[in-house]
Amino acid sequence: MIPLHDPSSALRPTAVALGSFDGLHRGHRRVIAAVTAPMPAGQERAVPTVVSFWPHPREVLHGETRLRLDLPEEKLELLEPLGIEQLVLVPFTRELAALTPEPFVRQVLAERLQARRIAVGTNFRFGVDRRGDVDDLARIGASFGIDVQVVPMLWDGAERVSSSRIRRALAAGDIDEAARLLERPYRFSGQVVSGRGLGRQLGWPTANLAVDGRKFLPLEGVYAALAWREGEGGEGPMAAVMNLGPQPTVDPLAPSAVEVHLLERRLELVGAHLTVQPLRLLRRQQAFASLEDLSRQIQLDADRAGELCRTLGPPGEAST
Predict the structure, then answer these.
(1) Secondary structure class of 15 (helix, strand, coil)
(2) Could you report the per-residue pLDDT of 60-89, keeping only the tens digit for each?
(3) What is the DSSP-derived secondary structure letter of residue 111?
(4) 28: Cβ–Cβ under 8 A, 6 or more apart, which residues?
(5) Per-residue pLDDT tens over the stretch 117-174
(6) Whose CA is closest to 34, among 20, 23, 24, 48?
(7) Which strand (E) or helix (H) includes residue 202?
(8) Rounded to an integer, what distance in angstroms lies between the CA atom of residue 300 and that of residue 305?
(9) CA 186 to CA 36: how far, in whole Å?
(10) What counts of helices (H) and strands (E) characterise the chain?
(11) Closest CA to 262 of 296, 311, 227, 232
């Protein structure tokens, strides 16, 4: 896996794709392709690098919670096949936010990262109060001998491809649309923790996932899903039905949870790391009159999830 660095430990000189790249969708990959192309003949090789800020600037400046489509560790796996050799996270602080455009380029890009080439999208802004635009970046970069390439936005129909658009699709439970925009499956992972055993009492044992609170999750509801047990002796993909959200029938006051029931598999998963790929929203959550009614509905959900896993999952791989 490619390394994750802070600016002081990064390999230099660099060819920098600069931005948040949350989701690494098709538009992001066009920006990245601009820095993985070979340097002109006679120029020193520069390390293809993605540079992002952590935490998100709006978290620092406005106290907003910004959930991510990809956490840094997930992004490492996605960047490597694109030809990127390192991910550099620049710690975002109020001091950094106070820099005007010229000191930002000089201190962060020219001095710390020794950037030889920078690629950004047309909507890139930087510096105090987001005063700098791509024209400022090109002008200031040129004064330090940095080649700046501005990549046009990618449009899909009447709207550009964007992380916000993918989040809207997930928030609506439209897994197909999110995957289409990402051009890859949407997945999340977490460690299986001990639950209260209520699912087992109903005859539907579940793996209860502790998912990083910074991860953007889809609409609450019941999903057909695939699951992988990661690490040594890992298994998958395995057909599953997943409940995302609270438990309105069993415990209406319980916090939202991620519960995964493997179809026709019985594995001891507590302590294991599980990756989940939602395939299709089956229904929204609802309260039932009795536990028997809930159990009957889960059976219907499991039957439909099994059919969807066979038709939507990787051919010949989803075991049920």
Answers:
(1) strand
(2) 988 888 899 999 999 999 999 999 999 999
(3) I
(4) 19, 21
(5) 999 999 999 999 999 999 999 999 999 999 999 999 999 999 999 999 999 999 999 9
(6) 48
(7) none
(8) 8
(9) 25
(10) 10, 14
(11) 227
Non-local (6+) Cβ contacts of 161 within 8 A are 25, 26, 27, 153, 154, 155, 181
The 3-state secondary structure of 44-109, one letter per residue: CCCEEEEEEEECCHHHHHHCCCCCECCCHHHHHHHHHHHCCCEEEEEECCHHHHCCCHHHHHHHHH
CA distance 81 to 32: 11
58 or 144: which carries more pLDDT confidence?
A: 144
pLDDT band at 316 (very low <50, low <70, confident <90, very high): very low
Decide: 129 and 61 in contact? Cβ < 8 Å: no
pLDDT band (50, 70, 90) for residue 43: confident
C-alpha to C-alpha distance for 231 and 186, rounded to whole angstroms: 20
